[in-house]
Design brief:
The complex is a heterotrimer. Chain A is mainly alpha-helical. Chain A is built from twelve helices and no strands. In chain C, α5 runs parallel beside α7 and α6 packs across α7. Classes of the chains: A mainly alpha, B mainly alpha, C alpha/beta. Chains in contact: A-B, A-C.
């Protein structure tokens, strides 16, 4: 098992290098020479050249990329054009806020979707099932930022239960943005839970469990759920990336000081080092989380575990 | 001589099969209430999109400022009210369907053509090319698609066309996967071998034998992707990175409405509803198609 | 039926009817069967796929899925206890304790995410209120009993071969020493050599545990090996029933004859196989008369109009066929 984890970690390195390159290359296409956003209008040719050198803008794309990777390995993502602060430092001050939001989002999504998916599957084609599926479909079709706006209208402006934005009110501040991102995720996960449960519910081993005298409740909660969760865990990895994506919108709507806002603001200000740094770090985060989920997956499913033990 | 006859027979029966597949898909779809509702909704939305230039004058009714008539609540004159520039929101929402549908469809077509070609090639050629393709797909699905699209738009500059490209790029990976998987499942089938044995060129084998088999999955994927592409485009416009003002794009209308959410919340209501209804119709059709094409998945 | 005889029966079913009400029509899976089984007796339920054998077994455990399944019955007693109207919680106590079942496909009957030991121990925890540790000890003993080293209790089902899995399933079914064991084609999914081993094992354990058994199969060879009595089923009804001697040597029903003629004869290899022509009728649309009439060589006009009733012909032998109403009728197989 340890060898498997080490192997996966080693495989991570080329993937991360590739990610950094893709993002670096995209950002390189950006029109306009970033030097001019920094130097004063009456700068001399020499001053501009010196500045370009200082900003690491000389050389071919590959040269600059390797310089960037070298810096990255030492934890240096460059300096913001705008705030002149270290990008890594800025990113790390914002990251906890986004992770907090992501964690609450995941909790809300799981808390809604797994019970709902199970109820829908167990009562297939009943009213409960139909209502759950309609709710899930609406959740999937609703743009998250619009849901955020609706939540503000109802729960903060009309009812005054939650603040309409900001960070100051602790737990209260996090509920609406988390729900904004979580609704779509919950909808998706409800559908996956249901179809995964439906697959499992027809299996002989559930009939076997019933024939042993296991109560219906336990058949569902112990025998069926454990099997149904396996495919759900795999989709959860991909969903983490969507949660971070969703947080870009939710953080904008609710003025939440996280990574998503950082990126959006940086783009407004054409602050390329910040955008590149934040994207690279976020993608790394997703990749590492996916790896962790794969490992958890191996622990949950003995069949996979056995495969890797060999 | 005999081979020719056999080949003819094969093509005839395939043509017959193709037609009957579409008929049977329609028969299945007709039984699905959700899909029919979705289809009716989509037809209506397309009709509105096509008709809006004849109903509203773009220059005077959709984008012209009318400061005197700003912020009117919904009424008989202005069904959805007017916005901060005094423009009729109903006219703008109707006109907005043109942008959302165009961006969604073009972006997905781009992703489809590019992704299916790439994926089919990867599956067919195999080897390191296939491995690299799949790794790239993995990477693309681990970069949050909103962030990816933001990066692309900010690199290329804000315009409707660049928005389509950005959304298209983020929708490509699923098509690569579907096409590759489809090719893999039939790569080893005997009728492919026999086509090769009678000297059918490789590209023809892919185009006439392999791709038609994955068409159904690709159609389903495309329908569902248009819906998510519309949401992505609206998200980018909401962030100020999509269709430039003053065009009546739903996402940017919501962005404008956000500033007035406290006192004039109808400004944020209707454009969002329009997005949801459009995406819902596509999701209903996509789900219905998937059930119709694969009865095993019917749940 | 008097009190006394009831008490001597492990299983007593009268007029069991099961139908599945689906969108495409009503599937009539079981159309009124009576079944009695004495203690320590083994009965074989024989018939083609779709004859309603598995449905009958599920109905005895009250595990017919509802919806779409609808079960009606005049009497359903196990070990002298009426289980027809038992509430769900009480029924959980009966299953696994009084009556248990071995399923056809051992590959899918074991839960992939639990060790085999845990799956055996679970029955013991439910029915004998054993704690985790004791029940695992007992589970290991059960594994030894079915010929698997106890140390393998901590392994997962995918680590076992098909025959081994079926042994595990048998261990689960017998863990709480049930009075009645239903085996639903327990060897069909296994290789021939493994089949013999598993059958031998079941025969031995049945004796050892004093268990009554219902052996569901389509293989008359298995019936000859393990059963005391046989019930031949066709389209949800019993068409012939009796001791092995009655049914094998004094065959009366044309369908039973057809089953025997479909068997390859090892002693006489030149003999032609005589398969029964046609297919089982559609259970959503059963014929008005005898369900077997469309495939029967002896069918008369009367057979197509009227449903035959089960008739007692000897102390133990029953059959349902209208052709015998003709004077001097006998099937070709005759009384050997």
């Amino acid at each position: 098992m340890h060898r498997y984890i080490i192997k996966r970690l080693l495989m991570l390195i080329p993937v991360l290098l590739c990610v950094a390159f893709i993002i670096f290359a995209i950002m390189d296409v950006a029109e306009g020479d970033p030097v001019y956003s920094v130097v004063s209008a009456d700068a001399t040719e020499e001053e501009i050249e010196a500045q370009r050198e200082a900003m690491g803008l000389t050389g071919s794309l590959l040269e600059r990329y390797f310089r960037y990777v070298k810096g990255m390995l030492q934890g240096d993502l460059g300096t913001s054009y705008v705030s002149k602060r270290d990008v890594m430092e800025t990113y790390l001050t914002r990251l906890p806020n986004t992770l907090k939001l992501a964690a609450v989002t995941m909790a809300i999504a799981l808390g809604i979707s797994i019970p709902l998916g199970i109820v829908a599957a167990v009562n297939q084609n009943s009213i409960k099932d139909t209502v759950s599926m309609i709710l899930a479909l609406l959740g999937l079709s609703m743009p998250n930022f619009w849901l955020g706006l609706l939540l503000i209208i109802v729960f903060s402006l009309k009812l005054g239960w939650f603040p309409s934005g900001g960070y100051e009110d602790g737990v209260l501040s996090i509920i609406l943005p988390a729900f904004t991102i979580g609704a779509g995720l919950a909808a998706f996960m409800t559908r996956s839970t249901r179809s995964s449960m439906l697959d499992v519910i027809r299996q002989d081993y559930l009939r076997m469990a019933r024939a042993k005298g296991v109560s219906e409740r336990k058949v569902i909660r112990k025998h069926a759920l454990r099997n149904a969760l396996i495919p759900i865990i795999t989709v959860f990895g991909v969903q983490f990336s969507n949660v971070l994506g969703g947080s870009v919108l939710a953080e904008t709507v609710f003025a939440w000081p996280g990574v998503g806002r950082l990126v959006v603001d940086a783009i407004d200000q054409r602050d390329i080092p910040t955008v590149t740094g934040a994207l690279v770090m976020t993608t790394m985060l997703v990749t590492v989380v996916n790896l962790l989920i794969d490992i958890v997956y191996a622990y949950v499913d003995p069949r996979i575990k056995a495969q890797y033990m060999k | 001589m005999r081979d020719q006859i056999v080949e003819k027979k094969v093509t005839v029966s395939q043509k017959y099969k193709k037609r009957s597949t579409f008929i049977s898909i329609w028969r299945q779809l007709r039984k699905n209430k959700g899909a029919l509702i979705g289809l009716a909704m989509l037809v209506l939305i397309i009709a509105i999109a096509l008709a809006s230039p004849y109903i509203f004058d773009y220059d005077t009714q959709v984008i012209a400022n009318n400061i005197k008539g700003r912020m009117q609540a919904p009424s008989a004159d202005h069904w959805f009210g007017t916005d901060d520039m005094g423009r009729d929101i109903f006219a703008r929402v109707c006109y907005g369907a043109r942008y959302s549908l165009a961006v969604g469809v073009v972006a997905v077509l781009f992703a489809l053509v590019f992704g299916v070609t790439w994926g089919a090639a990867a599956g067919y050629i195999g080897g390191p090319f296939e491995d690299i393709t799949m790794r790239i797909c993995d990477i693309f699905s681990s970069i949050p698609s909103v962030l990816m699209a933001i990066a692309v738009v900010s690199a290329l500059g804000k315009s409707t066309f660049n928005l389509m490209i950005a959304v298209g790029i983020t929708s490509t990976a699923p098509f690569v996967r579907v096409a590759r998987a489809a090719v893999l499942t039939i790569r080893g089938e005997e009728y492919i071998e026999s086509a090769r044995a009678i000297g059918v060129p490789e590209w023809r084998i892919v185009a006439t034998h392999i791709m038609p088999n994955s068409v159904s999955q690709i159609i389903v994927q495309a329908t569902l992707r248009v819906g998510s592409a519309i949401i992505s485009a609206a998200q980018l416009s909401f962030l100020g990175l999509g269709v430039p003002a003053p065009a009546p794009e739903w996402g940017s209308m919501l962005s404008a409405g956000r500033s007035y959410i406290r006192d004039y919340n109808y400004m944020t209501l209707y454009p969002g509803l329009a997005i949801m209804v459009t995406v819902l119709s596509l999701n209903l059709i996509g789900d219905g198609l998937r059930d119709a094409l694969d009865p095993k998945l019917k749940r | 039926m008097s009190e006394e005889t009831t008490n001597n029966l492990i299983l007593d079913i009268e007029n069991l009817v099961v139908r599945y009400e689906t969108e495409d029509g009503i599937v009539r899976a079981l159309n009124g069967i009576d079944l009695q089984l004495g203690y320590r007796q083994t009965i074989g339920l024989v018939g083609e796929t779709g004859a309603g054998k598995t449905t009958a077994a599920l109905a005895m455990l009250r595990l017919v899925p509802d919806p779409p399944g609808v079960v009606e019955c005049d009497k359903l007693m196990i070990g002298g206890r009426d289980i027809l109207n038992l509430p769900a919680a009480k029924m959980d106590e009966v299953r696994g304790k009084d009556i248990s079942m071995i399923f056809q496909d051992p590959m899918s009957a074991l839960n992939p995410v639990f060790t085999v030991g845990e799956q055996i121990a679970e029955s013991l925890q439910i029915h004998e209120q054993l704690d985790k540790k004791t029940s695992m000890e007992r589970a290991k003993e059960m594994l030894e009993m079915v010929g698997i080293p106890g140390a393998r209790a901590n392994e997962y089902p995918h680590q076992f071969s098909g025959g081994m899995k079926q042994r595990v399933v048998i261990a689960i079914a017998l863990a709480c020493n049930p009075k009645l064991l239903i085996a639903d084609e327990p060897t069909t999914a296994l290789d021939v050599t493994i089949q013999a081993q598993v059958l031998e094992l079941m025969n031995r354990l049945k004796e050892q545990y004093d268990t009554s058994m219902i052996m569901i199969t389509h293989d008359l060879g298995i019936v000859a090996e393990v059963c005391d009595t046989v019930a031949v089923m066709y389209a949800g009804k019993i068409v012939e029933q009796g001791t092995l001697e009655d049914v094998f040597n004094h065959t009366l029903h044309p369908y039973t004859e057809g089953l025997f003629n479909s068997l390859p004869n090892i002693k006489n290899r030149t003999a032609m196989l005589k398969p029964i022509r046609g297919l089982m009728p559609d259970p959503t649309d059963l014929p008005a008369g005898c369900a077997f009439a469309p495939r029967c060589d002896y069918a008369t006009e009367e057979c197509k109009r009227r449903k035959p009733q089960l008739k007692q012909v000897g102390p133990t032998h029953k059959f349902a066929c209208l052709a015998y109403e003709q004077e001097g009728f006998h099937i070709k197989r005759g009384n050997r």
